[in-house]
Amino acid sequence: MSIPETQWAQVAEQVGGPLVLKQIPVPKPGPDQILVKIRYTGVCHTDLHAMKGHWPLPVKMPLVGGHEGAGVVVAKGELVQDFEIGDHAGLKWLNGSCGECEFCRQSDDPLCANAALSGYTVDGTFQQYAVGKATHASKIPKNVPLDAVAPVLCAGITVYKGLKESGVRPGQTVAIVGAGGGLGSLAQQYAKAMGLRVVGIDGGDEKRVMCEKLGTEAFVDFTKSKDLVADVKAATPDGLGAHAVILLAVSEKPFQQATEYVRSRGTIIAIGLPPDASLKAPVFQTVVRMISIKGSYVGNRQDGVEALDFFARGLIKAPFKVAPLKDLPEIFELMEKGQIAGRYVLELPE
Ligand code: NAD
Ligand code: ZN
User: Fold this and answer.
1) 189-228 burial code (b ≥16 CB/10 A, e <16)
2) What is the distance in A from the centroid of ligand 2 to the CA of 108?
3) CATH architecture assignment, domain 156-295
4) Where in the chain are the domains?
5) How far is CA 252 from CA 201, 202, 220, in A?
6) What's this model's pTM, rounded to 2 decimal places?
7) Topology at the third CATH level for domain 6-153+299-347
8) Model pLDDT for residues 147-187, shown as the tens digit of each residue
9) Quick check: CB of 247 below 6 Å from ligand 1?
């Protein structure tokens, strides 16, 4: 397999952008890394937050974003044992972690203080060839389509982990806030596969129609509802509210509202990362209704294996649109306006 010296990449030269489609060197894998020829890579809202510098965590510049990259292993370092050239692999947000700290030792590798983050602290998958630590890369079976599986590598794993963290059980109801977006569309499919009942919350008829196909039993449109709290409660089978709320929205308001429609004893899982946002909850209600509020951050390697296995077994089918790498700036524009139902997946040039 011949590997070129240079390749096409979408590069943000400075915080705030713009993106430049240009030729850059192909990276060389370190001793414990694989080099993946990326075929498809999903576009996550995190990539937009990264380019805009939305978060209190320094971002690498110039930056090649992207962390849902699916492709073929074309080279590997001398310490890599679990991948062969030609295997299909996925590069995720967690590009690598130290393996030695308390969090890594306890399989909480996303919490590793020295974790390398694809498309944030190291270059990601908006390029034809990308590297990642072999122990953190995902194995993708050959019969799994690389375009459809790409969004599972961040969105799928993250929502699967969030649903597990919520402790919600089969037959119970989960409210998914931001159900029409990339994470939300996958969250509905995982929830359905896990035997949960879904109330979907998002805006607009395109997203309503999509959600009703994906598993939402009742859709609440936040752009039209006059009393969102009452509408969400009324949408749960017994009117008492959701057993769990999965917050995927990119605005702050739902993070303040969720305690009002979560059921007593219920759990709120914060996953979305709107800039400069705070969680606020009334102490009295939180205490006397025994409400839990938790954050959930991607997943560990085993969560990744399990989330991919749900997909490989045909249980997860979420809509995605394929676009060429050059279209990334327009996709970011649509994303900023909240106009993407489901996920965009970029196809890399051969
Ligand atoms: P997206 O843009 O595809 O979807 C966000 C959705 O939220 C949109 O459909 C939008 O209409 C909806 N929304 C906005 N305001 C809303 C409101 N008030 N009520 C209901 N819905 C509302 O984004 P995405 O790629 O799905 O990512 C969502 C968020 O999750 C981002 O902030 C991203 O950075 C974050 N994220 C977190 C993790 C993690 O590990 N915690 C992992 C991946 C992504
Ligand atoms: Zn992501």
Assistant:
1) bbbbbbebbbbbbbbbeebbebbeebbbebbbbbeeeeeb
2) 18
3) 3-Layer(aba) Sandwich (3.40)
4) 6-153+299-347, 156-295
5) 14, 14, 17
6) 0.98
7) Quinone Oxidoreductase; Chain A, domain 1 (3.90.180)
8) 999 999 999 999 999 999 999 999 999 999 999 999 999 99
9) no
